[in-house]
Structure prediction request, 626 residues.
Amino acid sequence: MTDNRTLRWFLFAYLALVFVFIFAPIFFSVVFSFNSDRFPTIPLGNFTLKWYQTVWNDPDVWEAARTSLTVSLSTATIATALGFATAYTDYRYSFRLKPIYLGLVLLPPTIPLIIMALAMLAWFAKLGISGQVMSIIIAHSVLTAPFAMAIIRLRLSQMDPSLEAAAWNLGANEWSAMRRVIVPFCRPAIISSFCLTAAVSFDEFAISWFVSGLNKTIPVIILEIVTGNIDPQVNAIGSFVFLVSMTLVIIAQVVLMTRRKKEN
Amino acid sequence: MVAPLVEFRSVVKRFDDFVAVEDVNFTIDAGEFVAIMGPSGCGKTTTLRMLAGLEAPSEGNILMDGRVMNDVPAHERDTPLVWQSLALFPFLTARENVEFGLQMRGVGAAECRRRALEWLDRMEISEFAERDIASLSGGQKQRVALARSLVIEPRILLLDEPLSALDANLVIRMQSVLTRLQRELGITFVYVTHSQSEAFAMADRVVIMSRGHISQIGSPKDIYRAPANRFVAEFVGRNNIIAGAVTKTAAKTVTIEGSLGSFTVQTGQHDAPRKGDVARFVVAADLAQISVKKPKSANVIPCSLISEEFIGSIVTLFLEAEDGSELKVQLQERELSKVDLKSATTTYLSWADEHGHYIGVD
Ligand SMILES: Nc1ncnc2c1ncn2[C@@H]1O[C@H](COP(=O)(O)OP(=O)(O)OP(=O)(O)O)[C@@H](O)[C@H]1O
Ligand SMILES: [Mg+2]
Prediction:
């Protein structure tokens, strides 16, 4: 009984800490984005949309938003396709070097971002493609494909192993079976992995900063504004970024969870 | 002469070093109901999968209508399979599942729908046509799986333990659905099961497999009355298997002497054994007789009654012979009342000469 109570308190405290350290700063950032004072102090000044207007009228921010959107959508598409392909290879085939294959495929997220960013920069420079939007897309795809693979692989592991063979048995060739059975079965995982990789790419700063050149993404432009001076514009942009990422993550969660409920 | 619908010629299947199916030969005629039966891991599913093209034989040929099928890919064969797990597509409705095979054959949407609904109706589940698979009961799923395979009008249907997930009552219902369907459609069924009652109740012919080999092929009656070897005799059960050393061989008969006595049986199809070989014969439990007075027959084993088991009107008596071996006799309940077993200390198990069935040396 007492044990239970201690545990409950402990969990409650833990949850509170999570909120304080993760959500509180975001919450205040959102609050200050509507605050008329230049400096983030309490008491608050008046409600204002001034900062949003400044952002709205800033062509650099628009440019960055376009770049970010292009990068994150392209990254999500490429990473999900790659993740699906690697997960399917893992599901379908067994070969001797599979552990090594899986290890390599899942490696990128374990490399410190800064090292990866530097390596990417050097590599792109050598290939003569640094400083382009494409280079950010490539780098982000490498970084996020393992997440996509992990999500889709989990889904494939829940599939009845005879499902694909059942499609062949009913007259589907490999391609139709893939299109009509494997992809529909994995659809929830594909949608969530698309959303999650898009969100990761949209937020990612280190690699973008190193390889972006003149094509700044939103996180890069936020840093530039902040390094210049204190400007509540960043709160406005930050709130926007938070909204986009959270939406994507929530969609990903909801799609995965409703599917699971339906199948049980 | 017309070629049989299916022919296995010296088919071998190896997985790496492991031999799952070894030198299998048999034919299946059009319209037959063939059951493949055997203990777990004996290669039943592998045999069926090779027929469907989902597994390639390591050696030998599989022919259909006299044509070698080894290089024909699975999706070009009309050999639909009803899976043990059913393998229905969970993201489609019952009707869409049934339409799948037709769509793969390029049938138009309206025609697909019409034929799918017709089959769902035939399987008496048309009211569930638009339901998700997950919301159907076991028996309903079973019917969707059957409809999905039969809608493409195949000449042969493969079934891999389709009833193993159902409860006993439903199994009996589905058995009659299956036999009726097979008779009405006149198509060939190849039915894999480890259940004797399913195989014997439905099949025209039974193939008994053991460790990748075929142990015997025959009608259910053949398998039951004339097991070809010790494996089949033990697998079928209900048999008293009596072993002993061969003491005398004559034209078509052999005398076997063991701890239960000395008995002479016909050798039938088997090669004559050599003197001194350990040989066996069986006496089916329902052909054996029990009595309190010692009968005149030469085939008598004195024993004592251990227990009785009633299943419906059939009684099985479990007996123990003097050497400790267990024997069985099966008879109708009303026959039992004619034998006054209660007062007797010794009873006699006996059989007519023609009911001793020789199963060879092993
Ligand atoms: N893909 C495979 N790789 C390796 N071994 C396999 C494979 N498929 C089957 N086997 C082996 O081949 C043997 C026969 O398998 P099979 O599935 O045909 O048995 P079965 O008679 O259908 O048994 P059950 O009644 O348990 O379904 C088994 O020992 C099994 O382990
Ligand atoms: Mg099997």
About this structure: Chain A touches chain B at residues 160, 162-163, 165-173, 176-177, 180-181, 184-185, 187, 262-263 (CB under 8 Å).
